[in-house]
Automatic annotation (TrEMBL):
Source organism of the structure: Carex littledalei
UniProt keyword annotations, A-Z: Hydrolase
UniProt cross-references to Pfam families, sorted A to Z: Lipase_GDSL (PF00657)
Family: Belongs to the 'GDSL' lipolytic enzyme family.
The protein's name in its UniProt record: GDSL esterase/lipase
Gene Ontology terms, MF aspect: hydrolase activity, acting on ester bonds
CDD domains attached to this UniProt entry: Isoamyl_acetate_hydrolase_like (cd01838)
Record-linked InterPro entries: GDSL, Iah1-like, SGNH_hydro_sf
Length: 232
């Protein structure tokens, strides 16, 4: 049975199967070796994520079919400024922390053997997020940084792997334009940055593409004169 990798998050996860997306790159990397399952919900925050867990994860598998790993990528919407146009998405910082704990607890109860990987929210290019007529950004990089640090702190508390997307992307030259397409969502380069970070953690967890067996023999391993001999 192929291992499963579940991607759970907001729009940056939902769009991860787009051309050049980090989820699509994972599916390509693990072709015939693992199934990458997309559970992305554009605009969702952790408050809503906690409430949809049962429905979102329905059909993925029980204890006997536990995913090998689950990524949890929320915070960009939680960090929306409460007094701006996306204020209805805002979640107070302490509630965000508690929601992450609840999501982690849900997965560890449902799939005890699954690795839960937190992904901190990305940085924000405020200039690109300004919408008129208000002339103000509905998110700030400072606020996103606070939520990223909270995510990292909760991950440390829970001893679960975490990717510091907020810091990683700001290490890239001209990161505002090179990694972000609209001040929040990812360019091809931004997707690559996250993809390699996820791959590195999966390798640390023993889920490298090189170590996973292929699903059924490769074509050059099939005996053309007696295929059933190859397939057993």
């Amino acid at each position: 049975m192929r291992p499963k990798l579940v991607l759970f998050g907001d729009s940056i996860t939902e769009a991860s199967f787009s051309d050049g997306g980090w989820g699509a790159s994972l599916a390509h990397l693990f072709a015939r070796k693992a199934d990458v399952i997309l559970r992305g919900y554009s605009g969702y925050n952790t408050r809503w994520a906690v409430k949809i867990l049962d429905k979102a994860m329905a059909g993925i598998g029980g204890d006997a079919e536990s995913p090998a790993a689950v990524t949890v990528f929320f915070g960009a919407n939680d960090a929306s400024l409460p007094d701006q146009r996306c204020g209805f998405q805002h979640v107070p910082l302490e509630e965000y922390r508690e929601n992450l704990r609840s999501i982690h607890a849900y997965f560890k109860k449902k799939w005890p053997s699954a690795a839960v990987i937190f992904i901190a929210p990305p940085p924000i290019d405020e200039e690109a997020r300004i919408k008129y007529p208000s002339g103000q950004a509905e998110r700030t990089n400072e606020a996103a940084g606070k939520f990223a640090k909270a995510c990292i702190a909760v991950a440390k508390e829970l001893s679960t792997p975490v990717i510091d997307t907020w810091s990683k992307m700001q290490e890239i030259p001209n990161w505002r334009k090179s990694t972000l397409s609209d001040g929040l969502h990812f360019t091809t380069l931004g997707n690559k940055v996250l993809f390699y970070q996820v791959v590195n953690i999966l390798i640390d967890l023993g889920l490298s593409e090189e170590k996973l067996p292929a699903d059924l023999p490769y074509f050059y391993e099939v005996d053309p004169n007696d295929p059933s001999k190859t397939f057993g």
